[in-house]
Amino acid sequence: MIEMQDVWKEYGNGVAALSGISVRIAQGEFCYVVGPSGAGKSTFIKLMYREEKPTKGQIFVGGFNIERLRERQIPMMRRHIGVVFQDYKLLQPLTVYENVSFALEVIEASRKTIQKRVAEVLELVGLTEKANMLPRELSGGEQQRVGIARALVNKPSVIIADEPTGNLDPDNSWTIMKLFQRVNDRGTTIVMATHNRELVNSVRKRVIAIEQGRIVRDQERGEYGYED
User: Fold this and answer.
1) Where are the annotated coiled coils located (predicted)?
2) Can you give the pTM of this predicted structure?
3) Which domains does the chain have, with CATH numbers?
4) Which is deepest, 144, 150, 174, 227, by most CB within 10 Å?
């Protein structure tokens, strides 16, 4: 599902965020990405959905060669990838239903398809009864569940989550984690960058640890392994 081949990323100030990263993540895997602040986790994640481009190397996600994508091809690629952010990135003037349906409207899905898919994902994340509420009327955990519903509505083959529990209390963090597990059980690949030691150590999955731009540990059913 995801492959990086000798990937390097240097920013304009000469800082090397990633140095020689090579990794494969199979269809259906659940993979944590961990490491200290500034290690390169966010860059690693952003390269997967083409928010950043590699300086050198190749990246394949769901059959797409990320480095060679033309600008007009990026929206097509992103239809196959769901992205969940730490700060939710919801459209504040829109209701829960409208935030989720927007992802289908931009690809001109039929009204029948939109109604069916939005109803399905809102039921999955437990927000059917709050479809007509605005983001400001929801708790942080509920807003993140809207973000996950929006990421799922296009039936992506992979979910990329960047610190999805970073702004949540422990109870809401566990709710989000259980939701990701349900999604993964249905066959969706999940790559999750996190600082949440308790989640990683309690729900054992593959752990990729990054330090100073390099993969220093890659373990099946691994542990968090950091004190920050």
Assistant:
1) none
2) 0.91
3) 2-219 (3.40.50.300)
4) 144
